[in-house]
Amino acid sequence: MSYEVSGWQEPTLGENLARAGVKRRDFLKFCGGLAGVLAAGSQLNGGAAFAAPTAEQVATVLEGLEKPILVWLQLQECTGCIESALRSGGTTVEDIVLNLLSVNYVEAIMAPSGDAANAVLEDANRDAHILVVNGSVPRGLNGAYCTIGGESAETVLKKSAENAVAVLAVGACAVWGGVQSSRAPGAGKHGPTDSVGVDTIIKDKTVINIGGCPPVGEVITATCAYLLTHDLKTPELDAEGRPRFAYDQRIHDSCPRRAHFDAGQFVKTFDDTAARNGWCLYEVGCKGPSTFSACPIIQWNMHTSWPIGAGHPCIGCTEKNFFDEFTPFYSTLPDVRGFGIEASAETVGLVVAGVAAAGVAAHAGVTAVRHAASRKAAQEAPLDAFGDSKVWLPDPTVKDAPETVEPEGTTSPDTDTDPAGKAE
Ligand code: SF4
Ligand code: SF4
Ligand code: F3S
Ligand 3 centre from 178 Cα, in Å? Predict the structure, then answer.
């Protein structure tokens, strides 16, 4: 979909879209994407908790909008969040900036700079607007670590929040402080710059937290669309202030590798046969069992892929303090939320496979778990990254016999064979 945009010239969004030559069918497609994201939560809740709108309903409301103003502040951040938003869905940057949201102030892509940019912000702040913040607020050294137009991030945020009709904290940095707030040894409670999230500063308004580092772009735009289509009413939020439509589902519960987890089939190193077969990444550190996000459903870059789909464990980036709670990233952590007391994937796998064995005694997964349980963990070179001391480098060669080599379905259901084809 591409068309000519010429700014917001007509009273309503629908009229501006028509002027730009946007076909209703294309607009409906775009609205269908937004409705799909809003429906992600209701799918996993049997449709009971959320009454997700249809594409037609979203389109009707959006078409009638009269130039909603949006201010996007970039505080102490890396630009990853706005990159994610701009690459969301099947829409173009221009669609979002000029047609849907009418972003008046966003440093990354706006034309004005210096005093002119400051003036744009002042103007936008005077009117009612939706405020999107990405980046944390560093309070150390009286805010000197991040200033805009000579003012500290905290002052800029407070000024922009004053007339805001809704406040969105986008990304881990804005939600709880992000990596710069990590409690590394000697860094203090909120990191060396004393960085905090938006809701630590803004107390008189509900802050909608869009967790992730960065969040899925469609979740950002869908939350804005939710506000615009619900009279700026805050969507239902979870305990961490995240919209439930996008964060009420555990990654582990909709992960396409889940069958391998249940069968006790785990990747041991990033280049082993199990990795090539797309088996479960729990033993190489996946935090999907403790992480809530719609990543498996919405995915990234127009539904192209997502971390686990690309073979990387989920590092739990939508969860608060994940840099502290979930590191070392490439280790299985014994006490993360989600599994209770189980100490390792092998324990979990044995329990799960033991239950499954009652029904399918000769399932190939049972064999895999037996092998895994009896084998001593191979010691490999540690990777000194992200503060890890116990993570393991991917082994350049496949060391173990390919005990997990057979794709499911190729093992005889009533023969307890190992994957090399030898009967036990
Ligand atoms: Fe960058 Fe992550 Fe912070 Fe977004 S949340 S600004 S991607 S570090
Ligand atoms: Fe998927 Fe990770 Fe759960 Fe394995 S542990 S099933 S890779 S979410
Ligand atoms: Fe983040 Fe995990 Fe999704 S790392 S992007 S929450 S798969």
Answer: 14
